[in-house]
Amino acid sequence: MNTTVKTTLAVIAGIAAIAIGAFTHQYIEQGSGTPQEHLDAAFTGLGAVKSLTYESILAATPIPSPSSTIPSSAPVIITLKGGIDGNDQLKPKSEISMTMSIPAGSSLDVLAQPGEIAIDARMIEKTLYLKLLKAPDFGFFNLKPVLATWIKFDLSGLAKQYGTKTTAQKLEDPQLIVKAHAFRDAVLAAHLITITKTFPNEAIGGESNYHYGLAIDKPAVIAFLPRYRQFMIDLGAEINEQDYADAQKILTETPQEAFPTGEIWITRKNSQFKKIKFIKDMKPQQDGNYATPGAHLELSFTLNAVNQPLAIETPAPFITMEEAYTKVMGQFEQKPSTNIQERNTQRSANVNAILNAIGQNMADNRGIFVCAKGKIPTAPSRVMSSKKGDFDIASCLVPTYLLTMPFDPSDKTAYWYSVADYNSGYIVSQKGGSTGKVTVSAPSAEGSSISVTR
Domain residue spans in the chain? Predict the structure, then answer.
């Protein structure tokens, strides 16, 4: 997918997300009003909402292109549950739990083992706290050292250290909440979402709801784009003018039927937003020899409680971002071991890390390993090293997919100095052509065979 298409989709998604965030409640007598009035009422009064809890689910089912080597699979599911306290304040508190399920055989399985990623997060004023609860075995990047540990990120400090001075100043702007509310009012007035169909009323959680079909309105989105651009500038974002112009052009050329559609549920009692669901099919595309896979996307957002007591506390204990970095990066310090089992465990980790990195390279290149040093050998006899006659693979993996090239823990000829000077001590081969399975093995394994094929 090219950059301009990504930019356009990001703009649509951003506006839709802001629209979702603007849903709240305003009293309307039961049974009165038109569908559009119910929708408008659900958009208004956000300033009166002091706290809320929510659940959001994104299901992405891959649709492979005709020439794709990656089979279709079960959807990748991302679930978000959380709450916001002090929504009407400059420094609201929020908490969120995210779970991402990666099914076996998923296109994401090229990068990681099937499993779940689970994260807890809390935002206290302008400080972010993250806790990683679950993570698949990425092989080349082990996150176990920081599992179940709160990590503190000072966002204002990060903006001052790594962002521009303007961005840091704007994050401290006391008028930021005023600008955000003004932008919210502009979103409401823009009528980005329109009612397209009326369904029978439906109960959710024992409460009766109006149920409507909806669509993103193309002319309204195009007209609102300059206001969205200005708001992002107010937040300190740097706008690429060419990308912005390309996004405007593509939005103009995109037919209305290609914009997301969905459904919305609004409580009959007081026209409070209850649930919204967006559906979007991104069809596979073929441009010459280049194939872009598609996806069927379903995004739902449900409000569970509004203006009910919600206490979000500062996590304790926690470690700093710098301490977490030290813990994670310590795994790349390969230390010699006198224990055979430990050495074989290290070999298994190294073999998986190399194989995962090769898999990432193939995923980025439509299922084919691309390397200036040539194709992966077909015979399992060539060691990965910089020496003449060996397969010099390091520059095709480091630093894009690996920080350093792993090497055997006991092979006296194995070492790592740079991409131009190393000897991994491991062998790589590929059978079945350029899209066939790849095998990485450890010939110096002690007492057992260590070889992984994927």
Answer: 3-319, 334-453
